[in-house]
Fold this sequence. Notes:
By secondary structure, the protein is mainly beta. It contains one helix and eleven strands, in the order αβββββββββββ.
Amino acid sequence: MKLKNILLVVAIIAVVIFAFTFLMNHQAQPKTDTKVVITNGTNLTEGQNVTVKLMDSNGKPISGQSISVVVLASKGNANQKNLTTDKFGEANITVDNRTIGSCAVKVQYSGNDQYNGCNFTDNIVVNQKPVLKVTTNSTNILGNNTTSKSSSRSSGNANSSVIITTVDP
Length: 169
């Protein structure tokens, strides 16, 4: 009877040692918290990018992660993109004429096995691209008593213009 008790105690000790060793080697790794910031300011002009950066709780960039970015104008217009962070943890979305004025930038990161997800909201202002207006008039005397008058007008961007030329004999 004593031998049975000794074997039972040895078996219990072996099971406890095995279980302890297994648990120590297979502890669950806790996930790291994350955060998002806007890196290029909150006062932009249409056509510029809003740059957001995904980082861990120590400020280290997190690359290759899918994030959802929405720029929501106060009038209800929105620009939404599903993006992937680059090697610097950054992703860009272009603001356009749908998002002129005060806007909310909303970023959602769902997380993965290593990182906890996070949500981020901040406000920006999107300014309308300046309108350029140029008017020039010139008169040139060509030879043989011929006069040329030119007039050029441009509005909108600098690439669109109208040139009118008349020649008087």
